[in-house]
Amino acid sequence: MQHEKLEISKIDVFFRNPYVCFNKKSQYKKQFEDKKIWYEHRLIDDMVAYAMKSEGGFVWACKNYDGDVQSDSVAQGFGSLGMMTSVLICPDGKTIESEAAHGTVTRHYRFHQQNKETSTNSVASIFAWTRGLAHRAKIDENSELKKFAESLEAACVGVIESGKMTKDLAICIKGMDSVVRKDYLNTFEFIDAVAEDLQKRLQS
């Protein structure tokens, strides 16, 4: 976990308190030691540098602004903001908010308004719906809805793994200057490919 200032404000103390017990004698100390994991508090600049050189294997707890910015950095590191899911869960476990990353398609929408072709990665938007539907299925104990949500997510992954992708992912493979039109699908072509894959999964 990290915070952005050396001076610890009231909100920093509030944010840290639930985790202080990890470094003191408590019910969590032995559980952490048994699993060979640990907790440490880091400043934001130190943590960002660590994340960039790290191979993963850690949980990064951030406050709202830091989490908003750094989650986008991590998502881009894995290919695209269009691949990032965002789910907020209430303490009651019943209420959730599922959304795509902020600003995912704004620039593309401006091109669309000008009747220009776009190649928008719709995975984040699709997963925003599937995570919501999956939660609804859990609450209602609806197995068919659960299967649909899981199948749609699997279809997105399957299409990309088959080599059909939007321009943002093609750039990750070939580089900005080497990508040509045949290397990627436009927005509608990608959605059609996902829909075709989904139908096959639902019929199997």
UniProtKB/TrEMBL annotation:
Residues 1-194 form the Isopropylmalate dehydrogenase-like domain. GO terms for molecular function: isocitrate dehydrogenase (NADP+) activity; magnesium ion binding; NAD binding. The keyword NADP applies. It is an enzyme of class 1 (oxidoreductase). Belongs to the isocitrate and isopropylmalate dehydrogenases family. One of its GO terms (biological process) is glyoxylate cycle. Its cofactor is Mg(2+); Mn(2+). It comes from Mytilus coruscus (Sea mussel). It holds the Pfam family Iso_dh. Keywords: Glyoxylate bypass, Magnesium, Manganese, Metal-binding, NADP, Oxidoreductase, Tricarboxylic acid cycle. The lineage of its organism: Eukaryota, Metazoa, Spiralia, Lophotrochozoa, Mollusca. This is isocitrate dehydrogenase (NADP(+)).
